[in-house]
Every structure is written in C-alpha cells, then in structure tokens.
Amino acid sequence: MTATQTQHKVVSKDEWLKARVAHLAAEKEFTRKRDELSRQRRELPWERVRKDYIFEGPNGPETLADLFAGRRQLIVYHFMLGPNWEEGCKSCSFLADHFDATQIHLAHRDVRFAVVSRAPLPRINAFQKRMGWRFHWVSAFATDFQRDYGVHFTTEELEAEVNYNYHEIRFGSEEAPGLSVFYKDEAGEIFHTYSTYARGLDSLAGTYHFLDLVPKGRDEDGLAFTMGWVRHHDKYADGYVLDPTATYEKPREMSGCCNHEEGA
Q1: What would the DSSP string read from start to end of 39-55?
Q2: pLDDT tens-digit readout, 186-207
C-alpha cells in the first residue's frame, strides 16, 4: 500500500528550525501567488446562460435559477453517475465526502452548492442514502446541462479524442468530473463565470491537503492511476488491499436500459 519511501535525513533541532524557516518563506510566496491567481480568476469574463435547464429535484422540477435558492452565487459539482451505473464514481465520491460540512458556511457567504448527475433521480436518491450525504443533488437526465458544460460524451465521440479540460484527449468514460460556477444578477439573469476539471478539482478534497502535510504525502507516485487507492467510504475494510497496477474503471452498468421513471 506504500509507494513512497520514508527514510529521511535526521538533524539537530537548530538545523531543523533553519530548514523549516527557509521553507516557510517558500510557503508564504506560494500563498501570495495563490491569492493572486484567485483574484485573476474572479476577473475572468462571464458568459450569459441562454438555455432553460429543467432538472429533476427532490421536490419536483427545478430550473437553474431555482438551484440558487435565493442566493447570488452557485457552485455546481458535476458528479459522475451515469443513467445505468450501479453506483457513483469512486473519485467523485471521495470529493463528495467533503461537501456537507461546507454547506452552512457557504450559505452565509451568499453561495449555494448543488450536485448534478445524469442518472435519474431515484438512482441518485438511493446512492445518496447509501453514502449518508445531505447536499442538494438533482438529475440532469432530460437536459443537455452536463454535455454543455463539458462532462458528458456520447459513445461515438469516445471513439476519437474529445474536448475535456479545454483540450483534445482520449477519454475512457461517457461521464467526466467537473465544477462550474454561476452568478445571478438582480434582474434574474444567469452568467457562467468559471469551470474547472481534472486536477482543478483537487482543492475540493480536504483529505489531500492533510496528506500533503505528512511524510509520505499523497503516496500516489507508484500507482497506475493516481486515485487508485480510493474506495467508497463504506468499502474500506481491514482486509483492504491496493493493486498499484489498477487503472481507472468506471462503475458497472445495471442490466437493461435506463428508465427515467424507475422507482417513482
């Protein structure tokens, strides 16, 4: 289960302190650069959302405007849960384990957070209940929302390169992870302000930030797939064994075709 060696140089307290203070200067510079990058992000141009998206929510149909729930800012996480998938993506689930604790804080900074997947709502509800999450999660089954924001591809498109994370790549799944941000003005007009994908989602995973502090770090260097160690939180066990050669594998699909009304 280990990809990183932990043998390390051991020094006196004075030498340790000297090295730590030198590294602190680098950390402070990184913090300043991160703040500047965030400022530049906020200054990016916006695009007006012209489509009327209707999602299926826990209490009935919801528009994109409804997802704001009275706030001006909306963060949407595009969660990989396809219409026929047995369960959600393990990596998306790893990130989602961090979502609930943020809700009260975001709400008091004029931000609503919501999760969107292409799976029909009954399947979303069943997986959410299994995982014990409480965040707002809606189905985009009957809309182009996921496709329009770069996280859904057709089977035919996957035979060649697709545009994901702003460049053409080969991609192995019809669903992809991402995050999009929207703003609603006083007139009710909605604007798309930002989207990020792939490693841009690292900041959502508090566990990674904790791991970055410890000697072995994220311990992913020797893995064929960086997040190959991740499991759904109800599937870790004492006998858990990591296969470092395993690549990403999307969840299995359920037999039969998707029925949008299942479980209704």
Answers
A1: HHHHTS--EE--S--EE
A2: 999 999 999 999 999 999 999 9
